[in-house]
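QA checklist item 7 of 12: single-chain prediction sanity check.
[x] sequence parsed
[x] length recorded as 211
[x] structure emitted
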Amino acid sequence: MTSVATGASSSRALARLSGLCAVAGITVLAVAVLGSQGISYRGYVSEAGVVGQPHWIEYRLGIFSLAVALVLLAAAMRSRYRPAAVLLVVSGLLAGGSGSVSCSEGCPLPPFETPTVQDLVHGGTSIVGVGLSALAILVLAVFGPEGQLRLVSRVAIAPIVLAGLANAYALIFIGRSELTGAVERLLLILIVAWCVAVAAALARPTADGRS
């Protein structure tokens, strides 16, 4: 009983830390992106992190904080549903890698632009990281244990999938545009909102993933 109680207390503490990191990360990232690009921008969020941009340090701090939030959330839910936790850990590591490797000026991506190897690494880690987060949410929504984790994931998954499909369409068929910038921001906000909601559910003293 003592070990179970200790494990539950540890999970709640990790969930609280995850929620704090997610809120801090998206706040700092929003300051960096809005300060560099404004509300509407024909391009990518990552451009705010290019060295030389006015808020590139804040951008990277925000990304690193979100990466830590994903890893902490995975640790908090590992006893509830391990497959989703594994996906979140990998997603968090990729997010950290994305923040560590900056793209070049303009963050060019195929098929409309000619990227450098660095651009491909940055873009690849970003896209796969976001995709794995969305997959973790889908897995929880479909196969997760009955309770708040599953409920929150089911509420979140439809808008996340729609935003993800719109983002993929924009990247492949349109390239740099206001639509691309808007749906990329929306997708990021939706995933972070899910992270905060799940962290809040897990942080409650009575939360057991099934109630």
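[x] summary fact logged: Residues 207-211 have pLDDT under 50 and may be disordered.
[ ] second reviewer sign-off
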